[in-house]
Design a protein that fits this description.
By secondary structure, this protein is α/β, with parallel strands linked by helices. The radius of gyration is 23 Å and the shape is elongated. The protein contains 12 helices and 12 strands. Helix 1 packs across helix 2 and helix 2 crosses helix 3. The chain has 3 domains: 41 residues, lambda repressor-like DNA-binding domains (434 Repressor (Amino-terminal Domain), Orthogonal Bundle), CATH 1.10.260; 122 residues, 3-Layer(aba) Sandwich (Rossmann fold), CATH 3.40.50.2300; 145 residues, Rossmann fold, CATH 3.40.50.2300. The strands form 2 sheets. It has a 6-stranded parallel β-sheet, with helices on both faces. It has a 6-stranded mixed β-sheet with strand order 7-6-8-9-10-12, sandwiched between helices.
Length: 340
């Protein structure tokens, strides 16, 4: 007779009994041990599912078990700690806690040494040359990247090239022809992908793309730096129908600069942001919306796969346009299918 699925809080002892294995073996599987036969691993996971087993991460932390910690590294240079990154971090904490893991920010010493011991590490919005990433991989522990493709690691990222294309095509459909793409510095990979999408859309329309407008980290406050950069260009004679922005924060700085120069948004110039976090500060923007919920679900799946010793893999997630007040309303285009 099949054993019934538990309706209460099961224990690791019950999982071991259900699987017909020792507690040590079950613990090794649930903790992501690599040297376990696949048949044994399947037995344990099946038993845990049947019993609705959820590890008690709070109890583990009280006993000082770092094996149940997942450490997160947030970007710390221009544009990488954004409302979007913080939203991903907060949602990821909830998802991983439901899997029995405690999430906390990774700490580093003044000379860059990694101080936080964890079972796995997650980077959100890290640049390829971030020295903290290099410190983490020296630990030879699982690493999961959110927002950036990392060969040899697990990763999940929005389809940023698609996003740049979708934003630019929306503006083209609205009649714009002189469109500029505003990015971060040139070695920023996500900026590069969004700029490529912008270029693709213009070339498909038979137009010549402009060079990317890069934002300099003069103050470290992205909205202010964006404002100063665009206002300076407008004062120098730049004429534009529209701007495709790296983020909603950048789009806000651009819109303020246009207003201060007497240009009406969207009647004179249209602006598209990027991120689409549900936030009262940015709800007026037309923006490319990243799916935070799906990003954190996929990232959690990848963390679990990494802890189980599976081979690294990654995935792109599609984005979509969210209409706002910074572009001309075009219902026919907004109802169209998302470009793959």
């Amino acid at each position: 007779m099949a054993k019934r699925k538990s309706t209460g809080q099961s224990t690791i002892l019950q999982v071991a009994a259900q699987a017909g294995l020792s507690i040590a073996t079950v613990s090794r599987v649930l903790n992501g041990g690599r040297y376990v036969a696949e048949g044994t691993r399947e037995k344990v996971l099946k038993a845990a599912e049947q019993l609705n087993y959820k590890p008690n991460y709070m109890a583990r932390q009280l006993h000082g078990e770092d094996a149940f910690v997942v450490a997160v590294i947030l970007g710390m240079d221009l544009g990488t700690i954004s409302p979007f990154s913080l939203k991903v971090y907060e949602d990821l904490k909830v998802e991983l806690q439901q899997q029995g893991y405690w999430v906390k920010r990774a700490k580093f010493s003044s000379d860059g040494a990694l101080l936080t011991r964890a079972k796995a590490y997650v980077g959100i919005g890290l640049h390829h040359n971030d020295l903290r990433y290099l410190q983490v991989i020296q630990e030879e522990m699982p690493y999961i990247s959110i927002g950036d493709i990392r060969e040899g690691h697990f990763w999940v990222a929005s389809n940023d090239r698609q996003g740049g294309y979708l934003a630019t095509q929306h503006l083209l459909k609205n009649g714009c022809r002189t469109i500029y793409c505003v990015c971060l510095h040139g070695d920023h990979e996500v900026s590069r992908l969004r700029y490529q999408g912008y270029r693709d859309a213009l070339r498909d329309e038979g137009l010549v793309p402009a060079d990317a407008i890069e934002i300099m980290a003069d103050t470290g406050m992205l909205a202010l730096d964006s404002y100063r950069r665009i206002r300076g260009l407008l004062e120098s004679g730049l004429r534009a129908d529209a701007f495709v922005s790296f983020s909603d924060i950048v789009a806000t700085g651009i819109a303020i600069a246009l207003a201060d120069m007497g240009r009406c948004v969207p009647d004179d110039v249209q602006v598209v942001g990027y991120d689409g976090v549900d936030d009262d500060r940015y709800n007026a923007l037309t923006t490319i919306r990243q799916d935070v919920e799906m990003i954190t679900v996929k990232a959690t799946e990848l963390v679990m796969a990494a802890l189980q010793g599976q081979s690294p893999r990654g995935c792109f997630l599609d984005v979509r346009l969210r209409s706002g007040q910074t572009t001309v309303n075009n219902n026919a285009f907004n109802a169209a299918k998302i470009i793959k």
